[in-house]
Write a structure and sequence with these properties.
The chain is of the alpha+beta class. The chain contains 16 helices and 21 strands. It binds adenosine-5'-diphosphate and magnesium ion (MG). Adenosine-5'-diphosphate (ADP) binds near residues 129, 368, 372 and 401. It is an enzyme of class 6 (ligase).
């Protein structure tokens, strides 16, 4: 396959590619496209580059614009879903019977709902991920993989990628490829800063809730620095710190180590493994508090795969946008086929369809973080095991999206450099702030392109599969 940049013979010139990779690794260090190492994940004494593609990858301009445009609609949708308790109850009713993690989140949700929310401020930082599906007619269309409403990462490093590729292309003598700026980190920080300022206490801080192992810390740091530049103070703490030292005062203000917390920004807490019983208690305390939660428990649930599937049912988007048919059609046009596997006729039909032709689908449990989805023959194994039990409701079924492969080289520490067939996934960051009933900020906050070898069905950058990339618009 030819390289889509029109490099022609240059792309098969291994010596040139090796030389460009050396230049690129130094550029990654210079521009901050870096990570800590697996060997020493909590130290910055020795760091390495984050995996990246040697060249940017082509994305049709019209499709990129479509993803940018629909992002504000998705922001509104997540917010509306998070405020509709009847919908959330119905959508997740079958799932919480069989999926313990979603059930635990739901318990907290119900608790907060009954007690009454303490914060009139909502802050959402999400990322809607897409692949460009190539249909039988050869037409490419934007199809959503999922929307991440908690700990959507790489807004920091993605903003450093344009400088890296611009330099590589310059050195390669390719001057006509335009790599656009990526403002993700600035706009995401603007959202957090806005929520912090509405909270209204100069002494209060933003708390990044982080994990023990901090390989991807520079992605966080870029956002932190942007906040400090806006005079918004940031601290980083773990669940254990909240358990040991956190408390609420009589007005449910959250305090920790003498700091009043204005915003809790979760970069952790999206997988069952992230929770001990104590951590669940800490999550509940934060959710009950006056602090702005990013996301709050309802918006976290709004990002589950079951909710994504329920939103694709006829009439549901109209329920959320009764006066805005344009938003409905913009959103709906990005949906791939999504199917409930709940017991009953509809679920039975989906199940039979998947068993007949498993390669056309992806089977998804209610999990985040990559590597959980089920493909091919394994779909039949799993479905045959659960088909006569309510356990099937732990999964949803989705049409498999098949993007056009392109050639690129992935530069990854410890892996040989070789041109390979790759698939890209485009993410759009969204940010919104609501104060009471009024949306005071709603923006598309830049993009993330991740590219992986077509050998892998699943897995992100952190999982060691995908690499950071830039779109070049064609
Ligand atoms: P996670 O929450 O674990 O990130 P995703 O739904 O994003 O779950 O899926 C993980 C990966 O699986 C995606 O990055 C993509 O590579 C692949 N994938 C997910 N859904 C589909 C689909 N419908 N068609 C093709 N690939 C998919
Ligand atoms: Mg994903």
């Amino acid at each position: 396959m030819a390289c889509s940049l029109g490099l022609g013979e240059k792309f098969t010139d291994r010596a040139l590619l090796e030389q460009l990779a050396l230049v690129a690794k130094d550029a990654a260090a210079l521009h901050g496209v870096i990570m800590r190492t697996k060997e020493d994940p909590n130290s910055s004494e020795v760091v390495s580059y984050a995996p990246f593609t040697l060249f940017p990858s082509p994305i049709p301009k019209s499709i990129f614009e479509q993803a940018r445009l629909v992002q504000k609609d998705f922001n509104l949708l997540v917010d509306k879903v998070s405020r509709d308790s009847t919908f959330l109850e119905q959508a997740l009713a079958s799932t919480i019977i069989v999926d313990n993690f979603t059930a635990r989140l739901f318990q907290i949700y119900r608790h907060v709902l009954q007690e009454g929310t303490s914060s009139p401020i909502n802050l959402g930082l999400n990322r809607s991920d897409y692949m460009l599906h190539c249909g039988e007619n050869g037409m490419t269309s934007l199809k959503q993989i999922e929307i991440n409403t908690i700990a959507a990462s790489f807004g920091g490093l993605a903003s450093r990628m344009p400088a890296l590729h611009r330099h590589v292309l310059n050195v390669a003598g390719i001057h006509d490829v335009h790599v656009m700026d990526n403002t993700s980190v600035v706009v995401l920080a603007r959202g957090i800063g806005k929520a912090w300022s509405i909270y209204g206490s100069d002494r209060a801080v933003v708390m990044f809730l982080v994990e023990e192992t901090q390989i991807n810390i520079f992605d966080h740091r870029l956002l932190e620095h942007e906040l400090w530049n806006q005079n918004v103070p940031v601290i980083r703490r773990k669940f254990e710190d909240v358990t040991e030292k956190g408390c609420l005062d009589g007005e449910k203000r959250l305090f920790l180590d003498g700091h009043e917390i204005a915003v809790v920004y979760y970069r952790y807490g999206y997988m069952p493994q992230h929770y001990t019983e104590k951590n669940w208690e800490a999550r509940l305390m934060m959710e009950r508090s006056r602090a702005v939660k990013c996301p709050d428990i309802a918006s976290h649930l709004a990002g589950t795969k079951k909710v994504q599937q329920e939103l694709s049912k006829p009439g549901i988007l109209e329920r959320f946008f009764p006066d805005n048919p344009d938003a409905v059609s913009r959103i709906r046009s990005t949906f791939a086929g999504l199917y409930s596997l709940d017991q009953g006729d509809e679920g039975d039909r989906a199940l039979a369809m998947a068993l007949r032709d498993p390669d056309m689908f992806v089977l998804k449990p209610q999990r985040e973080g990559g590597g959980n989805n089920i493909y091919g023959e394994k779909i039949c194994h799993v479905l045959n095991e659960v088909k006569d039990s309510p356990e099937r409701s732990a999964y949803i079924l989705m049409d498999k999206i098949t993007p056009l492969p392109v050639s690129n080289c992935i530069v990854r520490r410890g892996s040989p450099l070789k041109p390979q067939t790759c698939l890209s996934e485009l993410g759009m960051f969204g940010v919104y702030v609501r104060q009471g009933t009024e949306m005071v900020l709603n923006e598309c906050a830049g993009h993330l392109l991740r590219t992986k070898s077509s050998e892998f069905a699943d897995g992100g950058v952190a999982a060691g599969v995908a690499a950071l990339d830039n779109p070049y618009l064609i």
